[in-house]
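Much of what follows relies on a compact textual record of a protein's fold. Each token is a code from a learned vocabulary of local backbone shapes. The record below shows the convention in full.
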Amino acid sequence: MTGGTVGSEEKYGVISNEKNKDVVAFWQGKSKSNIEFTKVYPYSILSENICTCHWNMLLQELKKDITGYSGIIITHGSDTLSYTSAMVSIFCKDFKIPVVLTGANKVLSDPESNGISNFEKAVDIVKENKIGVWTVFDEVYPANSVMEANCFNDKFTLGKCSGRYPDVDFANIKFKNKVMIIKEYPFADYSNIHFPNDVKSVLLVGYHSGTANENSVKVLAERCKSKGIKLYLQGLSSKSGVYSSTDNLIKGGVIPLYDMTTEYAFAYLMFEIN
């Protein structure tokens, strides 16, 4: 349990994290199930406040001996659920038991909350021994392909994933460096962006066709090169042609990432630079 709305309560119109909010106890009270759970709290936060230290704490739990367990369920705040899902999908890719991430759209005491139904679907995945890494939020999504929720309806969407994994020592991985995400937009000016010393890669999120303004990105690429930072472009599809603008950027040293959601590309690069 890592906090989030599923581990929060609302008072006077403000939703705050409450560590003693226990979705397992809520679910067991309704289902009368005798399933045994081991509950751990590596941290308890609103997920928008997540930092690399929290991912490291989660990894420490996932590195523990899981012999005898039928599955792992991670409860998480919805704001960054898709990012942590991508990270966990990479780290747990060879696990022989189901790993499921889930959360809630409203606090558990709200009758409109989907938290209990989401948790029940997560339990069902474990009971059915559905090997893989999954994200449950109303629907069941492959964790490596789930994309951030829409702010208007709280619905997550499904992207595509190439199935490409970073070539790293997963046993000894520890996140210490960072990836900076920059979103392309009309008239973008990247000339004054500050790069902290722990930023080792920049992920440029292009338009839906994998394009970006050549002139703006050339400036960004030059600044990244001077800092020894790799610049990646996300948004390209291996099944579609490359526009001349993108082709020119690639020839200029921008590294293309094909068939990856923003979240998966971010997690992929976080592993690559550590």
Q: What stands out?
A: The CA atoms of residues 211 and 244 lie 9 Å apart. The first strand starts at residue 8 and ends at 11.
